[in-house]
Structure formats: C-alpha cells, structure tokens
Amino acid sequence: MRTRFAPSPTGPLHLGHAYSAILNHDAARASGGSFVLRIEDIDRSRARPEWEAAIYEDLRWLGLDWEEPVMRQSDRMPAYAEALDRLWDMGVLYPCDCRRRDIIEALSAPQEGSVTYGPDGPVYPGTCRPGTVPTGPRPTGTALRLDMRRALQRIGDAPLSYIESGERIEVSRDALVDAVGDVAIARRDMDTSYHLSVVVDDAAQGITDVMRGADLADATQIHVLLQVLLSLPSPRYVHHELIRDEAGKRLAKRDDARAISRYRDDGHRPGDIRAMVNL
Ligand code: GLU
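Above: inputs. Below: predicted complex with glutamic acid.
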C-alpha cells in the first residue's frame, strides 16, 4: 500500500486536513507500506512557500513521517506538458478562451435549459467546441477542454470503473457527457489543471490508495477517464466524510479557528487532534 497526502499550500492546515493526513499515514503504516506527500502548488497566484513550510511543521507535530523527497507540482510541468501533448495528438482537446462570465451568460440564454452543475461548476455549453478535430501543434497560453464525446469515442468500450471503499463503481458515460461535460484539462494561466496533475502524479508516485474528502468524489469519474486515455493505473479510492464545524458547515482554509497551529499554540497535544477527528 502506498498512500499520499496532497495539500495545496494556500492556507493553514485545519482539522479536516489532519483527518485526511492521519488516515492515509496510518493506513500505510498499518500495512507496512509507504506514505508520501505531494505539494499541489499549480495555482501560482495562491500558493505560498510559507504555507508549504507550515504544512511540514504541522504534519511533523502530528507525529507523521513521510518519504523524501516530497513531490512539488510546480516542478512537474514537463510531465503535464507531455500528457497534454498525448491528449492533443489523440484529438480529444480543444482550445477555449471563454471566461466564467461568458459561460454563465451562454447558459442563461433563453434557448438553453436550466444550468447543470458538474464537478467544476456549470457544465460547459460547448461554445468553443470545434466541429472537426483541431490540427497543428498544441496551443499554449489558453485553456484546453476535453471534448467529452470524442474522448468517449476514443476509449470505445474499454471498461470505465474504479474501486470506491472496496466496491467497484461503473462510471456512467451518459453522466460524463451530460453532468460533467467538457471540463478544462489545462487552465489558461496554469498550463495544467487539478484533474490532469493529480492523475499524472498519482501514477508517477505509484499511489495504490487515495483517501481524500467527499468533496472530490465527483471529480473521480474525470480522473478515471483520464487514466484510461493515458493508459495509467487507477488507484483504489475512499472518499471520506468531511470534518464540519458545530453548525455543520465544512471547514475551509479561511477558518483558521480550526487551524492545527491554533490548537498547538493553545496547548493541545497531537493526541487531542486525533480524538477531535475520531481517530
Ligand atoms: N490538493 C487537493 C486539496 O488540497 C487534494 C487533492 C486530492 O487529494 O486529490 O484539496
């Protein structure tokens, strides 16, 4: 078993992160396997080195240890570019310069039906989707969307399923078209996306088991499709419950009231954190 914790260094780790990190760490240790970290810092506008340093400090304080060196996504751009080239050569990507506002406007036009929300927000209405497969070199500096219908044609009747909490789940091809749609696989200012990077890196790090929050459960169908397109292995998945505050609201990075560092400064011990998240 090889597990990972993959935080984005955009704010303090809170109780929800502690839960996820401890779960992955302890499962690896219990099975005699390994636990790795990955710093998901592709959003250069939000990632900060001081948050990365704070992540290591919090995890060490919690008593976790991990394999070195730590993978940092900002060092992995060549690997993402290679994956994008492969997808581009398959003819399943197209460039798109629509802004979020354009998409909302297109969706609220009278002839459109009601707006469907997918894992990345409103399902893209297809404004930039070309009638024929784009040719020439892969464009950069623009968003690239996955042409969902073409991607499904490309994989034909290959199996599209994954293991969730020990059970095999079939990914619905209809749901991919209707409820996920043409998601961005490269974002304009990033030249990659969460979906692409997580799939490429889980494979590169040899992750066998992904345990992450239920908020990412819906994204898994996209990840499994990318794994099939790119011939990468699928890890087993568990999407765990989210830690909520007393009002039932899920914790966010900006809630530093539940930051691990805050508990530490208040004199709590790592064991108290484990107890707070029922581990
Ligand atoms: N970087 C993501 C986050 O902090 C986690 C990604 C994952 O576990 O797949 O929410």
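The first helix runs from residue 15 to 30.
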